[in-house]
Each structure stands twice: as structure tokens, then as C-alpha cells.
Amino acid sequence: MGKKLEEFDIHWLEEPMNPFNKKDHASLAKAINIPIAVGETIYTRYDFRDYIEMGAVDVVQADATKLSGIDEWLEVAALARSYDLEVIPHTNFQQILHVQLAAACSNVPMVECCYESIMDICESQIAVENGYYTLREEPRLNCKFNDKILSDFRIG
Q1: Superfamily of domain 2-113
Q2: Which of 50, 67, 81, 152 is most buried, taking the most CB atoms under 10 A from its CB?
Q3: Helix (H, G, I), strand (E, B), or coil: what is residue 96?
Q4: Which residues are CB-neighbours of 64 under 8 A, at least 6 positions away?
Q5: Could you tell me the pTM of the whole model?
């Protein structure tokens, strides 16, 4: 399937197989001319290290909320940079966090944008204007959940 997709000039193929199967990702990366992106379901820097060293990833989609936090995300980004790999942070609704991290790293050209329907789950928002995020000026991330939104889904 990967060979057939090459003609469509796909920017990357995201987690095309079971994300815990590093060996097959490495084989696929060598067999096709579409960059392989992984990271949405990778939870440690050690797993990212293995993917990178095996040549099983071209686009690192690290997520600070799935790793052990900001420090580990920065370590993954630095590791990716040492292999000349881009990091495109995986994100659901935590753009505020990942936009700040992206601004601190030279190998992060963009941040995934989530569905607008879940953007209001956090009290503070970060808007996309003309395809760009604007960094917030307040001195904290403020990723606090919006209690009003959460109460709509509370059971009991």
C-alpha cells in the first residue's frame, strides 16, 4: 500500500502499523519514499530513541502529555534534532503547551491543530491566525480544564 501511495506526494504516513512494532516500521521506512511519522502512542524517550536509531521514523510526533512531561519532551526533541529529524508535536487540545515547546526548538516547523470542537476544553485558548499560532505573553501555560465543559460530561 505504501508504494501505491507514493504517487500522491503524501507529506508523511502517520503510524501506518502497530506503533509498538519498531522492526516493521523500520522495514517500511526503508521500502517506501514516504516519510514515516510516529509518536502519538509512544510514551518514553527510550522508545523514541529505538525508533530513531533503527531508522523507523522520519517525523517525530512527541506529546508531552503522553511522555513524562516537558523535560522528557525536550529530550526527545533534542535527540531528534541530533539525527536531523523534524518534530511535529502530536496534540489533541493542548496546543498552548506544544506551541511553547515548539518555539524553544529549531526542529519543530509546525504543531498539529486539533478539532475546533474540543478547543474550549481548556480555559485559556490559543488561536490560529493565517496558519500561525501567536505565543501567549502570560508567564504560565494555563492548561486548566474548563470546569463548565467538563461538568456537561460528569456522571453522578
Answers
A1: Enolase-like C-terminal domain (3.20.20.120)
A2: 67
A3: helix
A4: 70, 72, 73, 89, 94, 97, 98, 101
A5: 0.87
